Amino acid sequence: MSADPPSPRIVGLSAAPTRADDVDSLAGTIGVLTDYRRVPGLDDGPAADYIAGRLEEYGYDIQQETFAVETDAGPGATRNVVGIKKGAGQGTVVVCAHYDVYGPDCPGADDNAAGVAVMLEVARALRTESLNRSVCFIAFSGEEVGLLGSADWLERHANLREEIVAAVNLDCVARGDELRVETLPQYRWMLNAVPEFPASNHQIGLGLLGGDYRRFWEYHIPAVQITDNGGYVLRHTRNDTPETLNFPLAASCTEAVTGMVRTLAATDDTTSPAVEGSVDEDGTIRYAVSEPSITHLIVDGTDFGPLASGQVTLPAGQHTVRVIAYDAAGNRGVLDLEADVPDTGRDAPGSGHRPGGVSIPWKRTEEDLKKYGMQHYVTPFVSLSYDCPGEEETGTRIDGYVDGIRIIGLEEGHIVVHAPGNHRYEVAAVAAGTVVGYDETAYLVGRMYDNPMTHYIRDSSVQEETIREDPLPLVPVACVLAASLLAIGYLFSRRR
Question: What residue range is the signal peptide (predicted)?
Answer without folding.
Answer: none
